[in-house]
Design a protein that fits this description.
Blueprint (H helix, E strand, L loop, with lengths): L4 H4 L2 E3 L4 E5 L8 H4 L8 E2 L6 E13 L1 E7 H4 L4 E9 L6 E7 L4 E7 L46 E13 L7 E2 L1 E7 L29 H8 L3 E2 L2 H6 L1 E2 L1
Antiparallel strand pairs: 1-11, 2-4, 3-10, 4-9, 5-8, 5-11, 6-7, 6-9, 7-13, 8-12
GO biological process, one term: cell division
Pfam families: ANAPC10
Family: Belongs to the APC10 family.
Length: 242
């Protein structure tokens, strides 16, 4: 993924600075295979569900996206169907921030790790160029007038965390164990720098490697805009994130 200049100039892969661990693994199919940059190898769990990938940083890191490579054509019942992303300071205070539903994925799935509305200090700032927050029931005064505007997505900050956990809770075809071929975790190229995040706006998800309407690669857009992206049309059509 980072071979794409649009991606490489915007984000950096920070997985090498983390300590990786797995809930279970079949011998010869563990962390080394998950991180070897080869799509021919994979992690295979070896135990009861759910299965976990734990990513722990020595110091708090700015994280904007996780990318996972899965291939239903090769892995069939070992292919994840439902995943959850949790973040926190330690293993004991993790908070669920994303739930991902997949249907027969084939390719890279990019999961943005942006804070939800109301979880960032920027959310309380009046912004005349923002949109009304239709989901905020408390966002009115006594006359039922909107008091504030939603801060545009490009002004939001990615997560800052010590610990990221990927949980696989179910497989296709009622499978028990999972195959995930690669996992990459990304931070901004300039750690903590927000202004560059508007470079790609809120473009549509990538489908089959196509570019978005601005001519930028949609994979980079997803990492910096907070929208789920896939590198295959099938995943884009049938996968959801919340």
């Amino acid at each position: 993924m980072t071979d794409d200049p649009a991606v490489a100039s915007t984000v950096r892969e920070i997985g090498k600075t983390a300590c990786w661990s797995l809930s279970t693994a079949k011998p010869g199919n563990g962390v080394d295979q998950l991180r070897d940059s080869s799509l021919d190898t994979y992690w295979q769990s070896d135990g009861l569900q759910p299965h976990f990938i734990n990513i722990q940083f020595a110091r708090r890191q700015t994280v904007c996206a996780i990318a996972l490579y899965m291939d239903f054509n090769l892995d069939e019942s070992y292919t994840p169907k439902r995943m959850k992303i949790r973040v926190g300071e330690t293993f004991h205070n993790l908070e669920e921030i994303r739930v991902i539903e997949l249907r027969e994925p084939r390719g890279w799935c990019v999961i943005p790790l942006w804070r939800k509305w109301g979880e960032d200090v920027l959310d309380s700032i009046l912004d005349p160029d923002g949109d009304d927050d239709e989901d905020d029931d408390d966002n009115t005064d006594g006359n039922n007038n909107r008091r504030r505007k939603k801060v545009p997505l490009w002004k939001r900050k990615p997560m800052r965390t010590h610990f990221v956990q990927i949980g696989v809770t179910s497989m296709h075809q009622n499978g028990r164990d999972c195959h995930i071929r690669q996992v990459k975790i990304f931070g901004p190229r300039e750690d903590g720098h927000v202004t560059m995040m508007g470079r790609y706006g809120t473009s549509s998800a990538v489908m089959g490697g196509k570019k978005d309407g601005d001519g930028k690669n949609g994979g980079a857009s997803a990492m910096m805009s907070g929208k789920l992206a896939h590198t295959t049309e099938l995943m884009c059509q049938f996968s959801t994130i919340r």
